[in-house]
Design brief:
By secondary structure, this protein is α/β, with parallel strands linked by helices. It has one domain: Aminopeptidase (3-Layer(aba) Sandwich). The chain is built from seven helices and eleven strands. It has a six-stranded mixed beta sheet, sandwiched between helices. The protein has a three-stranded antiparallel beta sheet with strand order 1-3-2, with no helix packed on it. The protein is globular and about 50 Å long. The two termini are 35 Å apart.
Length: 346
């Protein structure tokens, strides 16, 4: 995911100091969650939990890990594929087991390789207010013809994380309505993610039909909110992307909204995770930018320094349940602070 370039085109670039780096991470019946035995960062498949085991309080990385294992086992999952349809079915079945509904936001993306049918998945957790806090990630994988890309971190980690987060959030009191969104089409359809871009993402205009060969799902979500005049209900957007690497390191993303970064990184420090959520900063173009450009406060939590990005080596053995647990704990502790900030009208 690291590629030295100029600060021009996009779906994921990193700016470190004066150096710019471009990056783009660009079913059966519900599976019972698993309980990890021993250290929480083991990468072997966890044993299945007994049926009578009660649901864990808070975020349970053993459950997230089992979802991750099941999703990766499906194989490569590019947009428009039967494998991604199977992934959607898995996500919907798991969420249904929590008593929640999944809404499909279907659209046809006009890509350099022709039209591709894509589907965003949305789970809504109703709050006291209709105003929304979005927690999002993408669930498609990059298409490679040279090798089988199973995308354990990119985007298995975010896909699995959101499933477990739905369970952890469903019974919590909420002032605001939450939407968990799995975006389709974050990855480019071209071999090199930026080679077919019609318009650099940093030049993208909300509502414009053409755009870069990436971030199709997030751009569609924003365009739909504009058309339905519900954009003003979007009060905050939190994006998770590539969050599962063993020893993950999350720098503050420079294009994200400052107060959201302050709350999340400050909460991480309070919880003793300052070595995971660090204070250095770089910029990345990702699924949060369509929201930023539409004036929705947004933040991207991403570990860009992942050497297996877009290679056949992006497999489960590079990841750790502990990384998912840290992100889950930090987000759950941050959400009440985010709600308080939004409720204050600041």
């Amino acid at each position: 995911m690291l590629k030295p370039v100029t600060f021009v085109v996009g779906a994921a670039f990193a700016l470190v100091g004066l150096v710019n780096y471009m990056a783009h991470r660009s079913a059966a019946s519900p599976v019972p969650p698993a309980a990890v035995a021993g250290a929480p960062d083991q990468t072997a498949a966890p044993p299945a939990a007994p049926a009578q085991t009660p649901a864990a309080q808070g975020f349970d990385s053993s459950r997230a890990w089992e979802h991750l294992r099941q999703i990766v086992a499906i194989g490569p999952r590019p947009s428009g594929s039967a494998a991604l349809a199977k992934t959607r079915a898995y996500i919907a079945q798991q969420v249904a087991a929590f008593g929640l509904d999944v809404q499909e936001q279907k659209f046809t993306a006009q890509t350099p390789n022709g039209p591709v049918e894509m589907v965003n998945l949305i789970v809504r957790l109703q709050g006291k207010r209709p105003d929304k806090i979005l927690i999002t990630g993408h669930y498609d994988t990059k298409l490679f013809k040279e090798f089988a890309f199973v995308g354990a971190n990119d985007a298995g980690s975010s896909s699995a994380f959101l499933v477990e987060l739905a369970r952890a959030l469903k019974d919590r009191p909420r002032e605001f309505t939450y939407e968990l969104v799995w975006f389709d089409g974050e990855e480019a359809t071209c071999a090199n993610w930026d080679e077919c871009s019609k318009t650099p993402l940093n030049m993208w205009t909300p509502g414009k039909p053409d755009g870069p060969d990436n971030t199709y799902g997030s751009r569609h979500y924003v365009n739909d909110a504009m058309k339905t005049q519900t954009l003003r209900q979007l009060r905050a957007m939190i994006l998770v992307d590539m969050i599962g690497e063993r020893g993950a390191l999350f720098q503050r993303e420079a294009l994200s909204t400052g107060w959201l970064k302050d709350i999340i990184w400050g909460t991480a420090k309070e919880l003793g995770h300052s070595k995971t959520f660090v204070e250095t900063e770089y910029a990345i173009e990702d699924d949060h930018l369509p929201f930023v450009k539409a004036s929705v406060p947004s933040v991207d939590i991403i570990d860009l320094d992942y050497t297996s990005w877009h290679t056949a080596a992006d497999t489960l053995d590079k990841l750790a349940a502990r990384s998912l647990q840290i992100v889950g704990d930090v987000l759950l502790a941050s959400l009440p602070k985010i709600e308080k900030r939004l409720a204050s009208g600041k």
